[in-house]
Amino acid sequence: MTTPRETPSSSASTRVAGRVAPTGSRPSAIATRSCPANQSANPRAGTSCTLSRRKSDPAVLDLSDRLCLDLFTGPFSRHSTGMCEHAAVLTRPDTSRTSGTTRAGYLHGYSAREAQRLADQADSLSALLHAGTTYPAGSRVLEVGCGVGAQTLHLVTASPAAQLVAVDISADSLGKAKARMARRAPNASVSWYRPDLNDLPFADASFDHLFVCFVLEHLADPMHTLTRLRRGLRPGGGITVIEGDHGSAFFHPDSGNARAVIGCQIALQAADGGDALIGRQLQPLLTEAGYRDVTVQPRTVYADATRPAIVEGFTRNTFVAMVESVRERALAAGLTEPAQWERGIADLRRAADPGGTFHYTFFKAIAVAPPK
């Protein structure tokens, strides 16, 4: 934690079945791999699935520990054929390397539509996610990865006398965050910074609390970042981490096509270096990063016709909109075909229609920094 430093952008690159190739060296074909549909697949332990490639393809790295997964452990399976096949050539956006850690790109981009999606998510889930999160008057709180300020608003509403510092790497997002606060909480006191997440411009032990929401899923090495962040927390200070887990999404009417498009989103995020299944990992991540007294609580969203605000704010405007946003990249990567994608999205939207239901689990962890 020294002086502010913006993360430099590296040139774009192409991920070829787990290997990153320089921009311009586009693969000549899409490599695929298959495994029996009833075979157990684990994203950490891997499987015995094989990756095949056409003769003209460049060298391909086995991705059996990443892509041959069903929705509850990763990208989709084609159970109807008894095989699961996945395109293994994924385009990777700009990333940056700092202090030995690669920071994944933000899969969903920085459009006005994405900013609104984040706001809808924060507003519809504020009671669920922020319950129990308040900070004493005068305490210094660092919000890590504040984005467009969707969560910032709820932090200052719950703890108006706390001294909030919000940081994000995106200048555009910070601009939207400031504008949002000016409209919704003009008297709130928030300090804004645009530093490198792994080189924050603050002295060690300068914060009483850290708030990290929907950030770790986009990082290539979340434990490294959590360890670095701990330096800024005073001994005994608290950290709150909130993450989702796309493997927890299930719905009625059930649909293999809908699960497949969710699988595309999970696969693309993995190709970017992130992890859409990170919610289930918070306890070991925080423990290994050196925090004490780690506790994790599931925060479950359930939506049906009796909860129209959740149906609209979360099922339709947050989750379905999130999956819809990766359409072009999924098609470009060969993960799906246009007709298959449209069937999947149509089926997923049915969960927000009368008679439909939707379930998703977030994970909220709290922990403390150890004494010196």
Major sheet summary line: 8 strands, mixed
Shape: globular
Percent helix among the residues? 25-40%
Radius of gyration: 21 Å
Number of strands: 16
Structural category:
alpha/beta
Write down the overall mean pLDDT. Answer: 76
Total number of helices: 10
H/E topology pattern: EEEEEEEEHHEHEHEEHEEHHEHHHE
Percent of residues in beta strands = 15-25%
Poorly predicted regions are 2-104
Distance between the termini: 18 Å
Core attributes:
372 residues; alpha/beta; 8-stranded mixed sheet; 3-stranded antiparallel sheet; 29% helix; globular; disordered N terminus
Characterize the structure shown.
There is one protein chain. The chain is α/β, with parallel strands linked by helices. Helix content is 29%, strand content 24%. It has ten helices and 16 strands. It has helices at residues 112-124, 126-130, 150-158, 171-184, 222-230, 256-271, 282-288, 308-324, 327-332, 338-349; strands spanning 13-16, 19-22, 32-36, 50-52, 83-87, 89-92, 96-98, 101-103, 140-144, 163-167, 190-193, 207-213, 233-244, 250-252, 292-303, 357-368. The strands form four sheets. Strands 9, 10, 11, 12, 13, 14, 15 and 16 form an eight-stranded mixed β-sheet that branches. Strands 2-1-6 form a three-stranded antiparallel β-sheet. The relative contact order is 0.15. The model is unreliable at 2-104 (pLDDT under 50).
